[in-house]
Design a protein that fits this description.
Length: 164
């Protein structure tokens, strides 16, 4: 089963939900082989620039005598990190642009995920206006509570805050 993250456009979903995006949370083979190409296709320009610069540096390092294996391993590591976390980079980029993460659905394929999501929309269409949403206020952070797990800036490489 694959988890699909459902995102709605910044102005809300249109009438036919054509702007609603389903992003599969899974390994990306193209990102393993050519991370800069996958990032460019998904318009993640800053990440593309960083990967290209890192790949060029790794290429230069691998030309030094005795550093060939290190260059190959670093290049593979860049591809592996992009392949594993690339979809998360894309989702975070879209959320920063104003997209709203509305649901996470586990389904065997995209068409099943769409069926599950849109069938739950038709059932909840009349009750959505009646339910009030609670207002959540963040609790004050203690100065000693900053570590790599609960850092609100997200400075840790992998997100561990409640994810798998």
């Amino acid at each position: 089963m694959t988890s699909y993250l459902v995102l709605e456009a910044p102005n809300g979903p249109d009438r036919d939900h054509k702007t609603t995006r389903f992003i599969a949370d899974r390994f990306v083979w193209l990102a393993l082989i050519a991370p800069w190409l996958w990032l460019t296709i998904n318009r993640l320009w800053l990440a593309t620039a960083l990967v290209v610069i890192a790949t060029l540096l790794v290429g230069q390092i691998s030309m030094l005598a005795g550093f060939e294996p290190a260059g190959i391993l670093c290049g593979f590591a860049i591809g592996l990190i992009t392949a594993l976390e690339g979809r998360d980079f894309l989702v975070r980029h879209l959320i920063r642009k104003g997209w709203k993460l509305t649901s996470i659905i586990s389904a065997p394929d995209l068409s099943s995920a769409e069926d599950i999501y849109f069938s739950s929309l038709s059932e909840n269409a009349g009750t959505a206006e009646q339910l009030s949403q609670p207002v959540w206020t963040p609790s004050p952070q203690k100065s000693g509570d900053k570590n790599f797990v609960n850092d609100p800036a997200g400075s840790f490489l992998f997100d561990l805050n409640g994810r798998r």
